Amino acid sequence: MTQEKLLELLGDMSLQEKIDQLLQLNENFYTGNEQEVATGPARDMGITEEDVKCAGSILGSYGAKKTKKIQDDYMAKQPHHIPMLFMMDVIHGMKTIFPAPIAQGAAFDPNIAKMACDIAAREAAVTGLHCTFSPMVDLVRDARWGRVVESTGEDPYLNSLYAKASVEGFQGESGDLTEKFKIASCVKHFAGYGAAEAGRDYNTVEMSRPAFREYYLKSYKAGIDAKAALVMTSFNTVEGVPASANKWLMRDILRKEMGFDGVLISDYAAIEETIYHGVSEDKREAAKKCIEAGVDIDMMSNCYAANLKKLVEDGEIDEKLIDEGALRVLELKNKLGLFENPYKDADEKLEKTMILSEPHRIAAREAAARTFVLLKNDKDDSGFSVLPLREEKKTAFIGPFVDSKDIMSSWAVTGDVSSCVSVGQAARENFGKKVLFAKGCEILGDDVHVPSFMGEVHYPQTEEEKEKLFAEAVELAKTVENVVLFLGEDTSQTGEAASRGFLDIPEVQSELLKRVHAVNKNIAVVLFTGRPLDLREVSKLSRSILVVWRPGTEGGHAIVDVLTGKRGPCGKLPMSFPYCVGQEPIHYDRLATGRFAEPGTKEKFKSRYIDMPTEPLYPFGFGLTYTDITMSEVKLDRNEMTKDGKITATVTLKNIGDVVGVETLQLYIKDVKASIARPMRQLKGFEKVELMPGNAREIGFEITADKLSFVDGDGNEVLEKGDFEVYVGFDSTTENKASFVLK
pTM to 2 decimals? Predict the structure, then answer.
């Protein structure tokens, strides 16, 4: 449909019909009978039958046959037969679930995200979905926050690359949404949601404008530059104003500065929640403030539907605001080609053959193996490490995750646990009877009750049952040379509304680790988690630690691939793992202070703790391989640079080990002196390098002005002359450096 025709359609719509294009309801309003809607959820929410008939989009409904029926019924009743948008949270896979975003960040390879989102888009499209509320690009520096699992970590540069790759995966590089098997991508949550105070979900956010712009806004901008069709508002405040009602944030920053011209949608009931923030008196005022801020779609509240018409009639808002939002919604429908084909790619036959297809499973297995991070791999007295496993060593697989298929994440809402491959299943395929198994304990102890989307998670157990599982594990551990313990967080312990005040593994698993260690010291821990954890005890009682995150559908196969050395671990931490929770929030690119404490200092009047280290237990960018790779000193091809020039920093890597290894070389830059305090160092580049045993390779990083500039509090890109330090290494703590001067 041409723009002229869209404007003609808009002009022919009634005011209430236009307002209802700005309303999003969930599928309960469309899959029950009309009487249930009239007496149930619609009445409770203050939604009229007319609103239901004309609501512009639906949340959480998929399945080709079902979506086609809903679309047919809706268009038959809609006054202008306008098609409905089908939207859903497809975060890291539709049915073929890929590693969680935090795991994808650990790959230090945005192409993994692009591939995962492309496959997710294909599977989502054939089920009838048009839009996904993904990627979540919030910068996260506090592991207590449950939604860490949806982020790619603590670094703005890394997050920005993943934001771009994810949007292009969902929408294609051209951004042509009529293309087959492409869906609209929604960048979220705008803005600063990952900086919730105390790591507590839905909490307020307070920070300086320079920090907001320099660190937090960059990844959103990257997603918008990649042509994301939608942006979602965040629940938090920004400078004291809830994001959904924040005109400066939405009109000035998002629309004007970033140039976003797509659909802006609220998070779930976020417009109504401005009342509870204390900035709106009632739903009428909430609707007024948020439509003035430029929020186009009201997700799951009646603020817009029940109040905007009266606000226009009373002269409190201009009808142009309604037209502005309704036109953007119509334009999105048009960009998806829905006026010509309301079903888009919904296809019952393809739904059966494409979803969880063998190529998709192979891709998920490959992706997962590239996200695992080896944190520790100490050798025993005979000079051998537990990992990779060797056939001549008798091994036991012990722990509650051995046979668990619940290895996706709490936000893999469309995935099926039954389709996942457990470690036990993969191990039996690989080893046959050579590996012995024991459960050891439940994932959570009897005294732990964790609320989740599915209700309360609880593992009822008597002391007798608990002791029996412990005893079986201990007896097995006595009979083998090596033990692999599969431990970690329950799915319900990470994700939205799963903020944690303690970051330990569950107590019952800690007890299992201690009992097994008492009889066998050759322990490798395989850790399932959606966030950084406090691993002091785990590190103390194990020789090896392999972090496998929430690995997804093919997690079991990928884990066994890496444990056996068929694939080497090559992941790097996208977030620092703290020494303990008291360090949170913690991140590598901190500012110096007037009394900065060098690691290990005992000086009293320095910025440090008196009862624990200042540094994390495992820093950002850290991760080992199964081989030994050496690195030469950094060499610069010149020691002076102009703003239009460039400098190349080079190092030589050599694999002096016995097996092939993949190392991620990282470039960090420090601005020694600037007009405002700058971070101790910032990631500005990385490259994955594969080396065969005995091979060497020279790697170069090109440094240009864009790697030296920064954004001030007014949004200006600033480049200042002076001294810079270049660090090249295997993690953020590297001291392998050289210096140059920007003239």
Answer: 0.96
